[in-house]
Hints:
Layout: H1 2-29, H2 49-65, H3 72-76, H4 79-99, H5 104-120, E1 127-130, E2 134-137, H6 140-161, H7 167-190, H8 196-216, H9 225-243, H10 249-252, H11 259-265, H12 267-279, H13 281-296, H14 309-316, H15 320-341, H16 347-365, H17 384-393, H18 403-409, H19 413-424, H20 431-434
Antiparallel strand pairs: 1-2
Helix pairs in contact: 1-2, 1-8, 2-4, 2-8, 2-9, 4-5, 4-9, 5-6, 6-9, 6-13, 7-8, 7-9, 7-12, 7-15, 8-9, 12-15, 15-16
Amino acid sequence: MREYLLTLCVAAAVTYLLTGPVRKFAIAWGAMPAIRARDVHREPTPRLGGIAMFGGLCAGLLVASQLTNVGEVFRISDEPRALLSGAGLIWLIGVLDDKYGVDALIKLGLQMIAAGVMVLQGLTILWLPVPTVGLVAVTPLQGTLLTVALVVITINAVNFVDGLDGLAAGMVCIAAAAFFLYAYRIWYGYGIEAAAPATLFAAVLMGMCLGFLPHNLHPARIFMGDSGSMLLGLVLAAGAVSVTGQVDPDAMRLFSGSIRNAVFEMVPVYMPLLLPLTIIAVPFADLVLAIVRRTWNGHSPFSADRGHLHHRLLEIGHSQSRAVLIMYFWSALIAFGAVAYSVQSANAVLVPVVMALSAIGLVVLLLPRFTPRVPSWAQRLVPPRYRDRMAARAPEAGPAPGPEAAGAEAGTGAEAASTTASSEAPPPPSPASLSGLNGATAVGDRHRFAVRRKIDSRS
């Protein structure tokens, strides 16, 4: 565990330290596209955060290869080399897309090629655990198709969910943590060395996300771009492919004892088939809904819009930070709930806990729909936006108008109209706001009170 922790810390430190220089490079190179209609941020922000993430991936794998125990993974398996080859290719595609833009169909084909490169070097599905049947061996062609499909789906699911500051990196980090716990238990709990590469991939992936998050939390100083989101999706899928079909029931000695115990103990066998779906359940649901929504409206499935789950949360009334935390919550609940289900001793209390947490999550999700009614003595304890809402409902009452106010009321109609117009118009910007660069990205003025646009899922 200490070697995994060291690998995680190295990947996180390298990613964190590289993100600052990468941000300056992105600004100088012009990898800072104009704000689009579907974007949530209000000022141009540099991309190419995937460059720093790729540096963290390389550093983590390099350090792991020199360690005593974890280094055995590089000697008994070619999967780390396969991951690095596929990651390098997908990262290069993402960098070109962040700077110049790549057609969606061309990018999809290149994603398949990157997945095929990993398959050619041994990172592929060998067999599938099927309930009531057992392990089913797949042909090389079937394994290749399944591997490519899983990699491409995971890459695009992470890419689709990358719409708010810190959302994709945080959700992938949660998924990687859940996957690490499962793979580590399979390796050390049952002594199956085939789960060692997946454990290493999950640790490095957590380090990449943790190192990038301080720069990407709201307000973000840099975006990961497609170079980062596709890289995260590929590493996450590589870990799922590595452990799927590698668990041998005979090695785990699951068929001893009663039939009931064997059924419960067979859960870890089926978990490699289920866990890759649960850890990306929220991004995958967003991906499916986006494809259905766009095709239903007569648009291409690859055409961007503002109808994703995080956009819906903003439309309900959540702030960016709260919307991100809500997405974190549901991802953690599904991913860690699936991992806990693989532990027999946790099954007794798992269902009530999941139901209670789901109820709490639904209340928080619908919180903006509730009308707060707080006494006047407790108004200082509620968030400012609720105080403003209650103040707007309260009848306006003020002191009696003095002579100056009476004189102002006696003005001409033109003066009154000009006064009204000037009161409704926004105040002119201060000289300090116009001089130099400010804001989180240091590339332009921050408009803090921009008019909110109605989210239209048809555009």
